[in-house]
Design goal:
mainly alpha; about 100 residues; single chain; 4 helices
Length: about 100
């Protein structure tokens, strides 16, 4: 299950399943965005933040605050594009399993 719930990754694997899911969801949304034929004003922001999420997933230890910031920027930039709604929801779900950011 999930480390955020106090559990460890799958036995015999040093890979965090949450990171694998994040990597997969980000990759899908990046492909969908690349294939989306219509230009919109904030497309560059979405592409940059998806690239940032992909880099965090590759590093294997994403920071919750940074994940959530990127998610908000992506949602704000492509949130009104209904064709990308499913992919965006998958990224949101993948980010949410990392838990809440630490309280200050």
């Amino acid at each position: 299950m999930l480390r955020s719930l106090g559990q460890r990754p799958v036995t015999g694997s040093d890979k965090d399943p949450r990171v694998a899911e994040l990597r997969s969801a980000v990759s899908r949304l990046r492909r969908e965005l690349a294939a989306y034929p219509v230009e919109f004003s904030d497309r560059g922001i979405a592409e940059d933040e998806l690239a940032a999420l992909a880099a965090m997933a590759v590093s294997g230890a994403p920071e919750v605050l940074r994940l959530r910031r990127s998610l908000l920027l992506i949602a704000g930039s492509i949130g009104s594009v209904s064709a990308l709604a499913k992919g965006l929801a998958e990224v949101r779900t993948a980010v949410e399993v990392f838990g809440e950011p630490p309280r200050r």
